[in-house]
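W.,

You were right to be curious about this one. When I first looked at the sequence I had no strong expectations either way, so I just let the prediction run and decided to look at it fresh. Below is the sequence, 257 residues in total, followed by the output.
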Amino acid sequence: MAGLKSAAHVDPELQTLDVYWQAKDRKLPVVVYVHGGGWAFGDKSDVNDKPPYFLSQGLAFVSMNYRLRWDASIFDQAEDIVSVILWVKAHAPQYGLDSQRIILMGHAAGAHLVSLVATNPSYLRVANLKLSDISSVVAIDTASYDINRLMRELGSFIERRQHRLIFGDNEEIWRQASPIHHMASRHNIPAFAILYVSQNEGSRLQAMGFAKALTQAGVETIMIPGNEKSPRLIDEELGSEGNMPTQALMAFLRAKI
């Protein structure tokens, strides 16, 4: 466990991270994993088989906590991701990490957050970083690429209620918090792998819409269906033996690292 510089009046545990690494004769690319939990729950320990799997594939793995709603905003959570990128760069020699090959990975709310950081350069710019400091992004099943569309047509009653609780009623805030609304070819957005549950219409349509917007902005993008898996299982089973989405994802990552 490692600590970050904590914001005032914040539980320090919410700004910590776990590093899974092994000594090698070369620097390891690093996956920074952001857990799900509806922006208000979850913990960095929710990693299942991912750390040993990625270590076996020659990648280090960092799982992070972040400030949770209701005591922090979505934009604070995005800033916490940036602080972990800074931490990786600062501590790369200590852990044998390759700070030039950082992969952002997130599930559900975490997928939304990593997608937001990787499409809106303003978060990184505050820390004197650029989108080119992220080598690729793995977004695992979120319905929140386009919050405005979710609130208009794609979300269920429960999903809309949850998003209203988290994001409020201001449509401009929805827009600013939606990764799909930050597309610009000049941003040099990193390559994306989008995992989604194909049997969930809302998640599938959100994934398709986001992938189309990325492609139109000139971003290399791959979509990886999870077939009949649930939103929970598509993340839990990532890294498990024989898991097909894992194999497709590793083919993508190897091309990027």
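Here's what jumped out at me. The two ends are 26 Å apart (CA to CA). And, maybe more interesting for your project: The domain at 2-256 is CATH 3.40.50.1820 (Rossmann fold).

Coffee later to discuss?

I.
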